[in-house]
Design goal:
With 132 residues, the protein is of the alpha+beta class. It is built from four helices and four strands. It has helices spanning 46-50, 69-73, 77-83, 107-120, and strands spanning 10-19, 31-36, 59-65, 92-103. The longest helix is centred in the last third of the chain and has 14 residues, at 107-120. It is globular.
Length: 132
């Protein structure tokens, strides 16, 4: 599939997540997760780098220890935490991301997203993002 330009594009994913021994294939309902690619203050997150070559309807699967979620997703943890219910335990999290849509956000959406990121002021264990 053709690689899509993602810089400053709004990416929307269907996401399935599971913990422990439960196979991800048994999760029937997907959550949606959207963000504007490339606006992080510390450069691209590991997740953004991993999905850079993804085309529409392509799938990226990830298995990661919950205690590594924050370092892997970086600034995206806040947006993810509001859309996905992540485990309370320190289990391994299995995630499947399907790139559902790539769109061009309005300039005000980009400004709002950057302002929200700046007002978040970094991430600490009590930030509520769900990645700790």
């Amino acid at each position: 599939m053709e690689k899509l330009e993602k810089n400053l594009k709004k990416l929307t994913f269907n996401v399935w997540a599971s913990t422990g021994d439960k196979p991800i294939e048994h999760i029937s309902e997907a959550a949606q997760f959207s963000f504007i690619y490339g606006i992080g203050t510390e450069g691209l997150s590991d997740f953004e780098m991993a999905i850079d070559g993804l085309g529409l309807q392509e799938v990226f699967e990830l298995e990661i220890d919950k205690n590594r979620l924050h370092s892997y997703f970086g600034w995206l943890c806040q947006a993810m935490g509001s859309n996905l219910i992540l485990p309370d335990s320190d289990d391994t999290v299995k995630m499947k991301f399907e790139l559902h849509m790539v769109s061009t956000p309005e300039p005000r959406e980009i400004v709002t997203a950057i302002a929200e990121l700046q007002s978040h002021g970094g991430c600490s264990s009590d930030c509520g993002c769900g990645c700790h």
